[in-house]
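Hi P.,

Sorry for the delay on this. The queue was packed all week, but I finally got your sequence through. Input first:
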Amino acid sequence: MRELDVLLITFLTQSYESLPVEQKNLFSELLELPDPELHAHLLGKYKCDPIMEKLLQRMRVFSSD
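Then the structure:
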């Protein structure tokens, strides 16, 4: 998904460095997911642990700006 790639690359270049180490590790885990599953996570279709949800929410806010 091209849109997903654009979001991830932009988030990586603009926000990744400011993430806590734990969220950086989770971001790496997200990148290992197949695109449809990653997209579903970003849309909130999966229930996640609170730390992952915090990262996903940050990415959602970032993408809406």
